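Re: How this chain folds, sequence and tokenised backbone to follow
How to read it: Take the token row as a discrete description of the fold.
Start of record: The labelled sequence and token lines come straight after this line.
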Amino acid sequence: MKVIVGLGNPGSKFENTKHNVGFKVIDQLSEQLSIPLNKQKFNGLFGIGNIDGHKICLLKPLTYMNRSGDSVIPLMNYYNVEVDNLLVIYDDLDLVPGKLRLREKGSAGGHNGMKSIIQHLGIQNFKRVRIGIGRPEGGEAVPDYVLKAFRPDQRPHIDEVVQRSTKACEEWIKSPFIQVMNKYNG
């Protein structure tokens, strides 16, 4: 089974915030792959389906960002998922809004959701899709910035990068990740 995790915060209060772009990708994947998020367990909302003979699990942790690992790892353990079959989608301050970057490993880069997953796994070598949200300007604190909605001028870039991220995840279901990386990082 391949597990695709989108990071975010639960609740309507956070629905359209920068920190929830991972949830947006999972919602689109759920719709496009016809895998409803109809199970609630492991501190998360998830769904399982088969796509062209590949078993896929889509997960939205409901633990709040800082404790994402509390959802991801129990699900992986229960379904006996290898780390090679994990893909995590999250927002990245170091990329401009609309930029997409796929990686096979790396540090948390200050992202608390990734810190939690890395801490629980004990390794940094797992696949990820980083979605650029840009950095705050004018001395705005990072927590305030990530918990705000995108500006109207940023929305088209974000909508487009969520679409591209969704396509990249769909391609990973059937293709080697290095091939998907080369295509979407190019």
